[in-house]
Design a protein that fits this description.
five-stranded parallel β-sheet; alpha/beta; 14% strand; 16 strands
Length: 517
């Protein structure tokens, strides 16, 4: 009997899921709220570029075109690449555009029965004998609603779009008292480049947040207004933003993305020997981190601007907070077209913004909140069932309880792709879709629910150890080879993809190492 798989989202993860589902003979239906593929790359800033080298941001079986010479392609080149992938593998015909999923609801066992199961789905199978998912979809153009029944759901909704993280203010101290304009970076990216340029031209702008979106917008404001009308950036935490991927001439991938670098890390479920080795080699973690930190400090003159972070680069990369610094950012700071200001807290008044306990008002015309997104709320709101809403993220004091960062042990016939982060999300999503397709076709079976939850506890311990307070981001960047090894072992393929002992130990691992086409 034909198996129907509902895929929510046509960003990178959704396209990969569609391609791998098709390869197994299943019938995918992809629901995308926008009018085109590409996810976060559909709406970007004019200055946005790729955050990782293109050699690390690519599909395993679809190389970048030779016409793209840059190591860091711009937003239009990235979107063209993604769209070309969708056309090449004939994925577009399976996508329903302008289709917003209002909710998904499981039709099958009652909540009490689900909680009593010992195996995922009751029988350990990805497709239940009776269970179906009901997907309610709203057409964003006609506002009509349609319901689809599918045998399996793959959530590829991402965590960096649609639901902005808006700070909460005490009464009388929020945007409502401000006479200027307040928008989120999501709103800024949604308008066309000409309108965005008109919006910021000649304005006294304050940007809240100093991660990638904030940095890009600040550069656009500085270019538009110069020192005559400088852009102010409020930040809470200083970050190690990379000027390049070659600290002191050493490729960053050789310091953090080969098997040797992972020997320095305590791993989930490791044995005694690996634990001992990680303990013995742990001083090298400090050395590698210092190498990168000293390079960034020298290249960006962080001491000069008082922007040296208090934490290590190792913590930064362990939490997936790595950003690439826009070229010329600190030149703009030195010229005075960008003003950096630390602010633990801020509030609004009629004329602008008040910072911490300072009495002076930062007079402002436009405030842009580059404060991130609520990816957890976006994922949770997909479910109609209160029980599934409560359990999808588990305890607030633990990392997200997804087995292999894909499967919730207590939610049947459903997978999540693209929520857990890594240094190259396109590569990680492809590995997960490959693994998921093999699970669906019966190549392997999942362990019991209790065993999956125990495995989740091990990963929770790892994430709290290295990501610290950011453990909810479920970052696997410094352990992505070990993670991929687990996927390969499940599937039944050799996780060692290099030729020779030294190559296996020291060469970086990337997308092309796992080309299985």
């Amino acid at each position: 009997m034909e198996k129907k798989v509902g895929i929510i989202g046509a960003g990178i993860s959704g396209l990969l899921a569609c391609k791998y589902i098709l390869s197994k003979g299943y019938t995918p239906a992809v629901f995308e709220s926008r009018s085109g593929v590409g996810g976060v790359w559909v709406n970007t800033f004019q200055t946005t570029k790729l955050q990782t080298p293109k050699s690390y941001f690519q599909f395993s079986d679809f190389p970048w075109p030779s016409s793209v010479k840059e190591d860091w392609p711009d937003h239009s080149q990235v979107l063209d690449y993604i769209e070309s992938y969708a056309r090449h593998f004939d994925l577009v015909g399976h996508i329903k555009f302008n289709s917003r999923v209002a909710g998904i609801e499981f039709e099958g066992a009652a909540d009490e029965e689900l909680q009593a199961w010992e195996l995922w789905g009751g029988n350990g199978e990805p497709f239940g004998p009776e269970g179906k998912w009901r997907i309610t979809v709203e057409n964003t153009l006609t506002l009509s609603t349609e319901v689809y029944l599918v045998d399996f759901v793959i959530l590829c909704v991402g965590r960096f779009s649609d639901v902005p993280n808006i700070p909460v203010f005490p009464p009388g101290k929020g945007p409502e008292v401000f006479q200027g304009k307040v928008i989120h970076s999501m709103d800024y990216s949604a308008i066309d480049f000409q309108t965005a340029a008109q919006l910021i031209k000649g304005k006294r702008i304050t940007i809240v947040g100093n991660m990638k979106s904030g940095l890009d917008i600040a550069m656009e404001a500085a270019a538009a207004n110069g020192v005559e009308c400088p852009c102010r950036m409020l930040y809470k935490t200083k970050h190690w933003s990379l000027p390049d991927y070659q600290p002191w001439g050493i490729p960053l991938l050789y310091l953090y993305f080969n098997r040797f670098s992972e020997l320095l890390i305590h791993k989930p479920g490791e044995g005694f020997l690996l634990s001992l080795l990680a303990t013995i080699l742990s001083p090298l973690r400090w050395v590698f981190s210092r190498i990168v930190e000293s390079h960034i400090k020298r290249k960006l003159s962080l001491d000069k601007f008082g922007m040296v972070p208090e934490h290590s680069f190792f913590k930064e990369i362990s939490s997936c907070f790595i950003t690439t610094m826009p070229k010329g950012f600190y030149d703009s700071v030195e010229k005075g077209s960008i003003i950096l200001k630390k602010a633990s807290e801020f509030s609004f008044c009629k004329e602008g913004i008040m910072v911490d306990d300072e009495s002076a008002v930062l007079e402002t015309d436009l405030v842009i909140l580059a404060t991130g997104f609520k990816g957890d709320k976006k994922l949770k709101d997909m479910f109609v069932s209160p029980a599934f809403k409560d359990c999808i993220f588990g305890s607030s004091t633990a990392s997200i309880p997804l087995y292999r960062q894909c499967i919730h042990p207590r939610i049947p016939q459903l997978a999540v792709i693209g929520f857990s982060e890594s240094i190259s999300n396109i590569h990680t999503s492809e590995m997960r879709c490959w693994w998921l397709a093999k699970l669906l076709d019966g190549t392997f079976k999942l362990p019991s629910i209790k065993e999956m939850e125990k495995e989740g506890e091990k990963w929770n311990k790892y994430m709290k150890r290295y990501s610290k307070e950011h453990y909810r981001r479920s970052c696997i960047s410094i352990l992505h080879i070990w993670y991929n090894d687990q996927l390969c072992k499940d599937i039944g393929v050799n996780p060692k993809r290099k030729k020779g002992f030294f190559a296996e130990l020291f060469q970086p691992y990337g997308p092309l190492d796992y080309n299985v086409s």
